[in-house]
Amino acid sequence: MSDTVTPKFLGENSPLPSSPEEAELDYVPNPRAGQLFMVRFAAPEFTSLCPVTGQPDFAHLVIDYAPGETIVESKSLKLFLGSFRNHCGFHEDVTVGIGQRLFEEMNPKWLRIGGYWYPRGGIPIDVFWQSGAAPEGLWVPDQGVSSYRGRG
């Protein structure tokens, strides 16, 4: 992979894709290939739609990964996550689907996603997925999102 890859969306006027399937994730060469480190993305205002009622569901997503040869370009990730605003899916399908797509396309050494969903029907749902055990020696801090506690 060339070190002079130009990201497709960075610095461009990029409309929000209408669906996750339409969204294109952009990957660029890892500037520290060969090093073991972790990258974290937090999306505290993630939204998708309930597949039964069509009402919005809200979550705080945390994506952690140890890059391999590539890293995900953050603007393309933002557009991809935003494309779920009109997507109907259960919390489990949405959370795991995001993690699996990133893992399959980017091929990192390791990836995990935590979906901390706000209550619907009085029940908060937290969904977690990871590609496997974290590589030995990787610093993996707590995701820092508390389970839902209501008002206090």
UniProtKB/TrEMBL annotation:
The record's region (Disordered) falls at 1-23
One of the Pfam families matching this protein, by short name: QueF
Q: Where in the cell is it found?
A: Cytoplasm
The alphabetized UniProt keywords are: Cytoplasm, NADP, Oxidoreductase, Queuosine biosynthesis
Which EC class heads this enzyme's classification? Answer: oxidoreductase
Highest taxon of source: Bacteria
User: Tell me, what does this protein do in biology?
Assistant: Catalyzes the NADPH-dependent reduction of 7-cyano-7-deazaguanine (preQ0) to 7-aminomethyl-7-deazaguanine (preQ1).
Which E.C. number(s) belong to this protein?
Answer: 1.7.1.13
Entry annotation: catalytic residues: 50 (thioimide intermediate), 57 (proton donor)
Record family assignment:
Belongs to the GTP cyclohydrolase I family. QueF type 1 subfamily.
Q: Which Gene3D superfamilies match?
A: 3.30.1130.10
> Molecular function (GO) terms listed?
preQ1 synthase activity
What lineage is on file? Answer: Bacteria, Pseudomonadati, Pseudomonadota, Alphaproteobacteria, Sphingomonadales
Q: Under what name is this protein listed?
A: NADPH-dependent 7-cyano-7-deazaguanine reductase
What organism, scientifically named, is this protein from? Qipengyuania xiapuensis
